[in-house]
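Q: Could you fold this chain for me?
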Amino acid sequence: MTEPFGARLRSALDAHGPLCVGIDPHSALLDAWGLTQSADGVREFGLRVVEAAAGRVGTIKPQVSFFERFGSRGFAALEDVLRAGREAGLIVIADAKRGDIGTTMQGYADAWLADGAAMEADAVTLSPYLGAGSLSAVLGEAVSRGKGAFVLAATSNPEGASVQTARGADGRSVAAHIAGETTAIGAIAPLRPVGLVIGATVDRAAFGLSDGMLAEVPLLAPGFGAQGATPDDLLTRFGALARNVLASESRSILAAGPDRIAATIESRAARYREVLGG
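A: Sure. Below is the predicted structure, expressed as structure tokens.
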């Protein structure tokens, strides 16, 4: 039986620390790396990042959109990158932000989380804004397959706050409602298999997300690096939850270029571990 996602993630965090390397082959980065604006370019970019990340961090997060823009060949390139990451022993989070209902959501589950699927990942990012309950079936399937998911809760984009901080009749924020409805699925082993996306630059209190409700929940935190949050902010923003956080950095690392990316990942990962005292 596949080891539960929460156990695998806990082991990766303990062994390598919180840094999660985003694989975001922006057009400007492809140019800077001397790669073509094509599916071949994003494949080469992604595979080089996987090679640099393997053994230095525990998790990577390919951003699906930068592959998708090249159509079927882009998806084929993404398949190669996802497979290479998993074969290298990395936990691979597909940053797809999928969200729908019924059989459509089932299709997404089969695409990203089914064993042997062409785009199989260890976890996928999901949007709950058709109602948190719309994700319950796919989250249940993820758990049964030993996979994970990260549900958008408190995002760092300014447009998100008006929705995510809104209060319902019970006084809870939308973000808190999402947290309560999604993260309770599955057993703690020793982290829950369903985590949340919480921006590193947001004030969790304003979103109604307390330490108590997030104690065993893995947190995917974009916003480190180019968006302004530093490794020191890991403790400032997340406090007692810091050891459960995946600090996602992409541009700040990828801008180092193909010749320096491995050393950049290594030094950045070491800095996060230092902050946590490890």
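A (continued): The chain has a mean pLDDT of 95.
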